[in-house]
Design brief:
single chain, alpha+beta, Phosphorylase Kinase, domain 1, six-stranded antiparallel sheet, 13 helices, globular
Length: about 425
């Protein structure tokens, strides 16, 4: 085991596969633990495997660089240093793969399984809309955190359909045969719903403790996947709703065009079985907002706890293109942080400034509670955080102090910039 990989201090080995070994490590610059996936150096040096492993490494690095979803394991960085080809990933202590729950003596409750597949379906839908097909969905590539959050991992064999990716795709039979779709195992053209088929196999295992296509040899597995219909779920357990049997059929259909075409379609049908999945959906939306807010420069010095506090305390607003957020002469005592879109600042009907994602406005109105001296209008669809004294009071005292400190720094920077512009004028 290496002592260091790049700047990262290796702690322990977490697991290994045919392509790489995964370590937990400490980042001394951020003082946080990460996971590092290190490609086997000996495989990189071999003539018969070296080129393939390097291409798989860069394939995963590119695929994960465009994905940012709460149910997909984050990859922070990819590096090549000498013989070290490694990915730096999100580290989740005490996470378990779904492989732990695919045995008859360790099955999860029905509600939990439906919730897991619901979250996976939404994560895959997101990846597919980014032009990424996973191609290796299986229980050991899906993790559950101690907080019962789901994380899809290992995009090393992903199929990338993006205009900004010009590399030749890694060919051949890619993935794990037991979880391949009929079109994948016969090396036919694949679409997004090849992942839906694989996810259906995972759900079948989670519900029954049995694999729907398992056989003694690869030829028999291929025959079962392409020809045989699995036994109904109700043959194994008596608490299966009729709708779930229908959903399973829509996931495991042999013909690709008869299968669920998108993950959101699957998630919507699963939500009909358990209405409270809508609450989970709202929580997922909140997590996605958290990821957006965390990247804004205004919140760079905030802890995760502070950001969650403010997110729950402050108001979230949306405006259509052309709508006024602030009008000159109005008494509006709010401060705004722009999350998406572009706004224009207008004075006496003239555009004087354009603000983009991460920019703030309304500082003086918030501070002095006087009438607005300029208007702010949405140049596109806009979403933002609105803060005023009453909303800020909902957060705890330490978060309020952190907010006010950064607010003052922002105000000083804005006044300094304005003074510089006036001096030049």
């Amino acid at each position: 085991m290496p002592v260091k990989i790049g700047k990262y201090e290796v702690i322990e080995e977490l697991g290994r596969g045919s392509m790489a070994v995964v370590y937990s490590a400490h980042d001394p610059f951020t003082d946080k633990n990460v996971a590092i996936k290190l490609v086997h150096a000996e495989a990189l040096k071999k003539e018969e495997t070296g080129d393939r492993f390097r291409r798989l490494f860069f394939n995963e690095a590119h695929a994960t660089s465009v994905l940012n979803h709460p149910n997909i394991l984050r990859v922070y960085d990819a590096n090549v240093e000498g013989d070290f080809y490694y990915l730096v990933m999100e580290y989740i202590q005490e996470a378990k793969t779904l492989g732990n729950y695919c045995k008859a003596n360790s099955l999860l409750p029905l509600r939990d399984v439906v919730g897991i597949i619901y979250n996976c379906a939404k994560a895959l839908d997101y990846a597919h809309r980014q032009g990424i097909i996973h191609r290796d969905i299986k229980p050991n590539n899906i993790m559950q955190t101690p907080a019962r959050e789901i994380k899809i991992a290992d995009f090393s064999v992903a199929l990338i359909n993006r205009d900004d990716y010009m590399e030749t795709q890694v060919g051949g039979l890619m993935g794990s045969p037991l979880y391949m779709s009929p079109e994948q195992i016969t090396e036919c053209n694949m679409s997004n719903n090849t992942d839906i088929f694989s996810l259906g196999v995972v759900m079948y295992e989670l519900l029954t403790g049995k694999h729907p296509f398992k056989a003694d040899n690869i030829n028999a597995i291929i025959h079962n996947i392409t020809r045989e219909t699995p036994a109904p779920l109700s043959d194994t357990r008596n608490d299966i709703p009729e709708q779930l049997e229908s959903i399973m059929h829509g996931m495991l259909h042999k013909e690709s065009d008869q299968r669920y075409s998108m993950g959101l379609d699957l998630a919507s049908d699963l939500a009909l079985i358990f209405k409270d999945l809508d609450d989970a959906d709202n929580e997922d939306a909140l997590r996605q907002k958290f990821e957006i807010v965390k990247k804004l420069r205004f919140f760079q010095s905030f802890s995760d706890v502070d950001i969650w506090e403010l997110m729950r305390a402050c108001d979230w607003r949306k405006y259509k293109q052309g709508e006024y957020i602030i009008k000159e002469g109005d008494e509006d005592h709010s401060f705004y942080i722009l999350l998406t879109g572009i706004v224009s600042v207008e004075k006496n009907g003239l555009d004087i400034e354009h603000l983009q994602v991460g920019d703030c406005f309304g500082e003086m109105g918030y501070l002095t509670k006087t009438k607005r001296t300029a208007s702010v209008r949405a140049n596109s669809e806009v979403s933002l955080i609105q803060v005023n004294a009453s909303t800020l009071d909902r957060a705890n005292e330490s978060t309020q102090l952190r907010f006010l400190k950064v607010f003052v720094q922002t105000l000083v920077a804005r006044l300094t910039e304005t003074t510089s512009v006036l001096a030049k004028a």
